[in-house]
């Protein structure tokens, strides 16, 4: 076995024993035979790790809410069970992402106090399995399943305020007996590393292309539709079913703190920009009401209250783009495609499939779907693409949402009385919340001429449209 020299897991280095135990539990569960961790002696795993490497899973400063490790592991399943004496089957390989609590004490306190780690773990271990089971029951015989645009979860464990007995963590896979377990006494989430399957992140500075934006909205629409149909068909409010979702009051407090920090920074930036005086005045008038605005717009609104990501911008997305051979040849001749500043109008449909995966579910909330849509379009699109194509992107989102809901037996317009016109009104309101969330993270945009100009354009457009007004939240 080899271990890289770089690892943020000094307090708990990933070990071969832990990987064997975690993978044995995963394969047992996949086979419908969940093992009893408390009864299994240490070293009884039915997996033999041949080799593994550990390296940082993201660049320094890229992730605030988690320490992330990328692990590549080659292993074999053992026929005949554990004890180390079974016959090895054909070798297997996995590329994994391991998410741990932040090493930095302040960030760790911030994450655990707000339960960001619990929320994401519960999403993968409770929400996702229930959505998958629901669609299996609900879809017509022979109908294609609605693929969830998320990485596969191999293991999840949540320990609040110290150690918990083995086997008590979410998702199981804890390990051996008591102190013999290599599992740390903290939250851990193990997901597949989608980058090894050709998924890549987008460049926030350049912004998303039209094809990427459409793929992202289609992906989140499927998740929205699944949670909506689950609520409608089973008749249980999702906030009761999933009490760990980011509650409006707690989320409002968290976002308000960020807005209070970001507004002075944004004001200093705008003061140096000619022509932004009216925008600055509107923001100053809005400031006393920001907490009430955030609370109002985060609150779920029937009939389309459902599960939202609530941090839906390009840095939490991965894309895999498959292009036609003729298109690839043309791009090779012309040089690399400019996907961001080129607005994407030339990316006609049918030029190959673009698939989006959605990451980082720490802020998953029971809210309104347009909050996700607005945050993506406000934060992550180049100006001209947003100005010219936002209505078409909303049309595409609406088509994906209603099509997926119909496949699950819910006709949104006929049964819920919600139509495309109401979506447009909710989107207008959600733009104000999206802007406030961007203000709370304004440092992400400052310092790069392209993102600074995009911010100025968004502010000017929303002010022109009358969105920078607390009254919008009540309309």
TrEMBL record:
<protein>
    <recommendedName>
        <fullName>CHK kinase-like domain-containing protein</fullName>
    </recommendedName>
</protein>
<dbReference type="InterPro" id="IPR015897">
    <property type="entry name" value="CHK_kinase-like"/>
</dbReference>
<dbReference type="Pfam" id="PF07914">
    <property type="entry name" value="DUF1679"/>
</dbReference>
<dbReference type="InterPro" id="IPR011009">
    <property type="entry name" value="Kinase-like_dom_sf"/>
</dbReference>
<feature type="compositionally biased region" description="Acidic residues">
    <location>
        <begin position="328"/>
        <end position="350"/>
    </location>
</feature>
<feature type="domain" description="CHK kinase-like">
    <location>
        <begin position="189"/>
        <end position="407"/>
    </location>
</feature>
<dbReference type="Pfam" id="PF02958">
    <property type="entry name" value="EcKL"/>
</dbReference>
<dbReference type="InterPro" id="IPR012877">
    <property type="entry name" value="Dhs-27"/>
</dbReference>
<dbReference type="InterPro" id="IPR004119">
    <property type="entry name" value="EcKL"/>
</dbReference>
<feature type="region of interest" description="Disordered">
    <location>
        <begin position="327"/>
        <end position="350"/>
    </location>
</feature>
